[in-house]
Amino acid sequence: MGQRFFLAMCLTVAVLFSAVSPAKEVFTGRVVGVSDGDTLSVMREGKAVRVRLWGIDAPEGHQAFGGRAKRFVSDACFGREATVTVKDIDRYKRLVGLVLLEDGRILNQELVRAGLAWWYERYAPNEATLRGLQAEARQAKRGLWQDLSPMPPWEFRKNGSSARKSGQGADTRNSAGIVYVTRTGNRYHRKQCSMLSRSGIPVPLEEARKRGLTPCGHCRP
Fold first, then answer.
1. Domain presence at residue 221
2. Which of 154, 106, 102 is nearest to 133 (CA)?
3. Residue 202 lies in a domain
4. Please, which residues bridge with residue 85 across strands?
5. Closest C-alpha to 203, from 168, 158, 145, 156
6. How do the pLDDT tens digits run along the chain, 221 residues long?
7. Residue 96 near residue 54, CB atoms below 8 Å
């Protein structure tokens, strides 16, 4: 794709989205980092800035499909030029925006289309395109929609935060409890389990069960 065509695409997208919500800034830079399925780092004026993808929420790294979402973003844009249309700045001082890829696709939309992110209705309630793409992915059972009842990441974060504040352990009889898993094992453990390695990752019990994990012999009720 020639440079002129790419620049024309950038201008077209910027104009279209400004009609919905005036962008504070539009810039083009190389993608130099991918934190997860909805956060990346893009060069701007010689510095890397963090960009949160607007209107979507990808699974957390410890959730099912979290790793796949991150790989999808890396494959789509890492080391390449991307154009960011800034729509907001979040409480973590990250730019929040739409990311246009070199081939003319919008990364935010492609993640939802692939079933690797949710439409974040809370922050983009009137975004009809994302709503439609999510319905399409769900109907086709793409990505995370293969699960019978996938947990939205905002609920995953809420459950984890509530458990930490209350000092809740890994009660395997409580579906809201926190248990510990490893990246390669097929068992989950209580916090005090003697079989738990130092690499244990805290996740909601419901999430562990959705992954098909079962309690280890020491943690069975």
1. no
2. 106
3. yes
4. 26, 98
5. 156
6. 555 555 555 555 554 444 444 457 999 999 999 999 999 999 999 999 999 999 999 999 888 899 999 999 999 999 999 999 999 999 999 999 999 999 999 999 999 999 999 999 999 999 999 999 999 999 999 999 998 888 899 988 887 654 445 444 433 333 347 877 876 677 778 776 766 666 677 777 777 777 778 887 667 65
7. yes
Q: Both ends of the chain: CA-CA distance in Å?
A: 60
What are the structure tokens assigned to 56, written together? 């979507």
Q: Is 84 helix (H, G, I), strand (E, B) or coil?
A: strand
- Token pair for 182: 């490893």
Which positions are annotated as active-site residues? 52, 60, 94
User: Going by C-beta distance under 8 Å and a sequence separation of 6 or more, which residues neighbour residue 89?
Assistant: 24, 95, 96
- Does residue 94 share a domain with residue 23? yes
